[in-house]
Amino acid sequence: MAGLSLAALLGAAGHPVTVYEAGDLGGKLYKLHLVGLDFSTGPSLFTFPGVWRRYLAALSEADHLDLRPLPGGLGLHHTPYGALPLPLPPEHPLFAEWQRYVARVQPLRPHVETLLTIPPRLTDPVFLRASAALGRVIGPHLSAERWIAAQRFSPPLAHALRTHALNAGLSPQDAPALYALLPALIADEVSRPAGGMGALRSELVRFCLDRKVVLRARTPVLAVDAARAEVQLRRQHERHALLVSALDPARLAELRGQPVRSGRRRTVSGLAIYAVTAQPCDLPATSILPPSDFGVFRQALRAAALPPDTLALVHAEGRQRAVLLTVPATGQPLSPDHPWVRGQVGRVERSLGSAPLLDLAEATAFLGPDHYARLGTPGGSIYGAAYPLWRAGPVHPQPYRLSDTLWQVGTAVHPGGGIPAILGGALIVSRLLRERQA
């Protein structure tokens, strides 16, 4: 997705562009067909639509995604202290507490899109203002866990907010404080394209084709020579004026013949279960089951072990259900018959009061850490390596420019998370390249 996003911008600037993709175009985001119904894999929520609008403006394109609010916003959070919808409605007993939380985060809201879409430069007054706004909101509390604890929220709300730290692919103790602020920043704008998340991929492909970008799907790059701006394919070498990698930095290092540091902590991976049921599901559009104990959960992830219970994100629409389970990034396959998988699915069924998911489904499909590892990240990790708190969020952990002829783009470089990071990172690299050529 990052490669397609940047390719369209570079094509619009008049550059001849070729995109090489080892598999199908779009990486993690594609359409999965089950008994006549389509599932969109990859990101399941569309957030920060203002970043999408900035991207469209850069291409002088109209918005044809037809974004529609997701019923129930961020969903019903099944915490150990009871179920909690986010955002909380006015009639909820904890609504005043939710308002206090939103008010605490509100000063950052006008600056979030800036942090997602401009280079992190200390010489840029716009970036400095946005970063200062973030600093005033988080104060001395660098991790999501420390920020939440400092606010003295009630246990149900605190547990629900901790859940969103996993948008960073990390436990609340290891995720930047920014991720504890996400529910207040996105709860009112959670949406999905009318045609499903796959519509975004289709739009990006169209933008590329309209700008004469050459799209070479199922064409894996086997080696990269940065000095010559050359890629090795199966049957030939191709030389270009400039290379931009949308791969995980560790995978890029392998292709360059460089040593890859072993033993680094990784962000989490996932197990995605897609199912079609005989009858429509009587469930909320989104249900979230956090780990019951984030400390135990963290210990398991750090040991690359399956936790006693994990984050489960459940989407339901008609006869379609998607259950996304957080797992350690080991790259190992997990089958539907694995006892741990059965146990986690059973937990979902009991918590939601739903019919058996695996036993009664008409059709199912599974995508596990082994699948995501084949897409190029270590162990199938969602955002690659885990970085210290001070190298996270707006202070990106990897450089965009590796040399005069080799650049990087994508969520492993700009870990804002999901679609906003993909589009924002493309806007950043496009701007930096434009400035170097000026």
Short description:
The chain has 438 residues and is of the alpha+beta class. 34% of the residues lie in helices and 18% in strands. Among the domains are: 1-68 and 190-264 and 381-438, FAD/NAD(P)-binding domain; 269-328 and 334-367, TATA-Binding Protein (2-Layer Sandwich).
What does it look like?
The chain is α+β, with helices and mostly antiparallel strands and 438 residues long. Among the domains are: 1-68 and 190-264 and 381-438, FAD/NAD(P)-binding domain (3-Layer(bba) Sandwich), CATH 3.50.50.60; 269-328 and 334-367, 2-Layer Sandwich (TATA-Binding Protein), CATH 3.30.310. 34% of the residues lie in helices and 18% in strands. It contains 15 helices and 19 strands. It has helices at residues 2-12, 49-59, 95-105, 112-117, 125-138, 144-151, 155-163, 182-186, 198-210, 249-255, 294-302, 339-352, 357-360, 369-374, 418-437; strands spanning 18-20, 31-34, 37-40, 67-69, 75-79, 82-86, 191-193, 214-216, 223-225, 230-232, 237-239, 243-245, 269-276, 286-289, 312-317, 320-327, 363-367, 401-403, 406-408. It has a seven-stranded mixed beta sheet with strand order 6-5-14-15-16-13-17, sandwiched between helices. Strands 9-10-11 form a three-stranded antiparallel beta sheet. The protein has a three-stranded mixed beta sheet with strand order 12-19-18, with no helix packed on it. Strand 15 (312-317) and strand 16 form a beta hairpin. Helix 1 (2-12) packs parallel to helix 15 (418-437) and helix 2 (49-59) packs parallel to helix 15. It is globular and about 60 Å long. The model has no long low-confidence stretch (mean pLDDT 93).
